[in-house]
Specification:
Layout (H helix, E strand, L loop, with lengths): L1 E6 L3 H12 L3 E8 L4 H9 L3 E3 L4 H6 L11 H6 L3 E4 L6 H11 L2 E4 L11 E2 L1 H4 L8 E4 L2 H14 L5 E10 L15 E2 L7 H5 L6 E10 L5 E8 L8 H9 L4 E4 L9 H11 L9 E4 L4 E3 L2 E8 L6 H12 L5 H15 L3
Parallel strand pairs: 1-2, 1-4, 2-3, 4-5, 5-7, 6-7, 8-10, 12-13
Antiparallel strand pairs: 8-11, 9-10, 11-15, 13-15, 14-15
Bound molecules: nicotinamide-adenine-dinucleotide.
């Protein structure tokens, strides 16, 4: 049984904890919080041992003021686990990495950290094998995960793929009251944006660039993608759709026919699926928004930013621990356990 520590029990951390809990080959060693808050209640209800993000004794003691049992500081948690999944807010990676290295524990960061922090990144379909038995890695961001899911099978049609894409990004997560814009469209003025090139940290063979804008919505990101397939690919629009239909964690549906023409309906469908928080782990492709013109493929996809990376973290744990070398086998095991967990 792999014992998994989760450092940071927020948007991503609470979801990863449940995904770990769903598996039969791993368990939650504990989760950390900064202090007593409503998030502690969720951990307590689930029976996840609660730890403090630091070893500061006063801070550890403060949990009891909220009525929560705190089992100790971060060092205590790290000592009782095989691997730590860092889910702290972005840019805390360097400070946390030093703690993980001092504790001699395997570690995984999220996409808010840069590839350079670990020199290794992870996306199941792109480079599971390269992460086998590594000491530390970074699960790429929600956007990079989405791009990798649909582009890697296209790359595998030949030996080249050139991509230009525009990321239409949600301004904030639904539970976030600090970010914006609330009445503006905000272009990312660093061109190209980091999103496209980040795919090359897991699949350097894909030549990709991106532009990005943030828009006032909280539900999902949308990607508008143009991909130049290698000449002689022999594909049609329909055969590309079939490739994606057979790709794990990708959903292809008809916008007009299924009445799913916006991210609002897509998220309503996700809520109907019945996963906690209304999550959609799959990348959503609008069938009627896909068209191959010569060698050039046009498509849109939608990304549920809070959840597409969750099952990836589970597969990444197996890669780091060296327990499953076949990415497809890990993905199937992860997804079936999560479905059973929610009775789907
Ligand atoms: P969040 O703010 O929702 O949660 C972070 C949690 O960490 C909070 O509970 C916070 O109290 C806790 N924390 C604060 N300081 C800490 C510290 N020093 N050590 C440990 N924990 C600490 O953030 P999030 O959205 O869950 O993001 C976590 C990571 O996941 C970031 O790298 C982010 O970029 C990445 N990510 C986020 C999303 C998303 O849509 N939210 C998607 C993919 C990846």
């Amino acid at each position: 049984m792999i014992r998994v520590a989760i450092n940071g029990y927020g948007t991503i951390g609470k979801r990863i904890a449940d995904a770990v809990d769903a598996q039969d080959d791993m368990e939650v060693a504990g989760v950390t919080k900064t202090g007593p808050s409503f998030g502690c209640e969720l951990a307590a209800k689930k029976g996840y041992p609660l730890y403090c993000i630091t070893d500061d004794l006063e801070r550890i003691a403060s949990f009891s003021s909220g009525g929560y049992e705190c089992h100790g500081g971060l060092s205590d948690l790290l000592a009782s686990a095989d691997v730590v999944v860092d889910c702290a807010p972005s840019k805390m990676g360097a400070a946390n990495l030093a703690k993980y290295e001092a504790a001699g524990i395997k570690h995984m960061f999220q996409g808010g950290e840069k590839h350079e922090l670990t020199g290794l990144s992870y996306s199941s379909s792109a480079n599971h094998a390269a992460n086998m038995n590594a000491d530390g890695t970074r699960v790429v961001s929600c956007n990079t995960t989405g791009l990798s899911r649909t582009l890697v099978p296209l790359y595998k049609l030949g030996s080249s793929l050139k991509v230009e894409c525009t990321m239409i990004r949600r301004a904030a997560d639904p539970g976030d009251s600090k970010k914006g814009p609330i009445n503006a469209i905000k272009p990312v003025l660093k061109v190209p944006s980091h999103h496209g090139p980040d795919v090359m940290t897991v699949m350097p063979e894909i030549e990709i660039n991106s532009l990005a804008v943030a828009v006032p919505t909280t539900l999902m990101h949308v990607h508008a993608i143009i991909a130049d397939l290698p000449s002689g690919h022999g594909q049609t629009t329909e055969s590309i759709l079939d490739i994606w239909r057979q790709t794990p964690r990708v959903i292809v549906m008809h916008g007009e026919g299924d009445r799913l023409t916006t991210t609002a309906e897509v998220m309503e469908m996700a809520r109907d699926l019945g996963r906690k928080w209304g999550d959609l782990h799959e990348i959503f492709i609008w069938e009627d928004g896909v068209k191959l013109v010569g060698d050039r493929l046009y498509y849109f996809q939608a990304i549920h930013q809070e959840s597409d990376v969750i099952p990836e973290n589970i597969d990444c744990i197996r890669a780091l621990m060296g327990t499953e070398s076949d990415w497809r086998a890990s993905v199937a095991k992860t997804d079936s356990a999560i479905s059973d967990y929610y009775g789907l």
